[in-house]
Design brief:
This protein is of the alpha/beta class. It has two domains: 2-149 and 204-245, 3-Layer(aba) Sandwich (Rossmann fold); 153-199, no CATH class. The protein contains eight helices and twelve strands. It has helices spanning 8-12, 16-21, 27-41, 58-65, 77-83, 124-136, 150-155, 205-214; strands at residues 2-3, 48-52, 69-74, 91-95, 107-112, 137-148, 160-165, 168-176, 180-189, 192-201, 217-223, 238-245. The strands form two sheets. A seven-stranded mixed beta sheet has the order 4-3-2-5-6-12-11, sandwiched between helices.
Length: 246
């Protein structure tokens, strides 16, 4: 049986199966969200932005097309290699661990989008990420964190389902242990049984507020969906936080 080794995101995100399973994500919705964010932020042209945990770079490319100077970083070497062909004078990609400082006092805005946070087993790593973001931002720089609304997700958790994609039946089981939401993914391909597991900390609004305060940020706004509607604990599917470096 093929299984992941080390931290789950290091191996799972580097597999072709990850991209098969999530191939139907609504990128037009994601681009509408980014447009809404940019309209809200009203950034000057060619500000320097970091897309932290950028994956294959699709959203970095879109941000760059909107006139921003963008650096996209991700721990997945395979994803970064797929993003590299899109590079230009104002768009670059690199492999990087978000817990560490990439370039100090460099970026006007750091984007961390589409639940690319809380992957670690150690809760203290969340503060490490935010402290690194603080160091990478210029004075009064902005961080945008788009996370799931953990309360909503837990209330609507689908325990079991099967997704059939590209001839593979992905058997998905979800659970919660009081800290992490687990997503176990089992399937067979080319005669081999495979097992992977995603683990994301169910970080709630008050916890984020506490972490951001400890990391030296002032929260500006909190939204609950990609249209930037007000956050509602029981109804919002997203937790979108805009904060400024003190």
């Amino acid at each position: 049986m093929n299984e992941q080794k080390g931290e789950w995101f290091e191996t799972w995100f580097d597999t072709s199966y990850y991209h098969i399973l999530y191939q139907n994500r609504d990128f037009s919705e994601a681009e509408r969200f980014i447009n809404n964010l940019l309209n809200y932020l009203n950034l000057p042209t060619e500000v320097s932005c970091l897309d932290l945990a950028c994956g294959k770079g699709r959203h970095s490319v879109f941000l760059n097309k909107k006139g921003l100077k963008v650096t996209g970083v991700d721990l997945s070497e395979n994803s970064i290699q797929e993003a590299k062909p899109f590079e230009n004078d104002t768009l670059s990609f690199d492999t990087h661990d978000m817990r560490k400082v990439y370039q100090k006092d460099t970026f006007d805005v750091v984007f961390n989008l589409f639940t690319s946070f809380g992957y670690f087993d150690n809760y203290d790593d969340n503060l490490k990420v935010l402290l690194s973001i603080h160091e990478m931002l210029v004075e009064e720089g902005i961080v945008v964190i788009d996370f799931m609304n953990a309360d909503f997700v837990l209330d609507h958790l689908v325990e079991k389902e099967v997704k059939s994609l590209d001839g593979i039946d992905f058997r998905i089981t979800r659970s919660y242990d009081g800290n992490h939401i687990f997503k176990s993914i089992d399937f067979s391909d080319n005669g081999k049984d495979c097992h992977f597991q995603e683990r994301v900390q169910a970080i709630k609004k008050e916890e984020f507020e506490d972490l951001l305060k400890k990391a030296g940020f002032d929260i500006i706004d909190v939204f609950g969906d990609f249209s930037l509607s007000p956050f509602n604990r029981s109804e919002s599917d997203r937790l979108i936080i805009i904060a400024k470096k003190k």
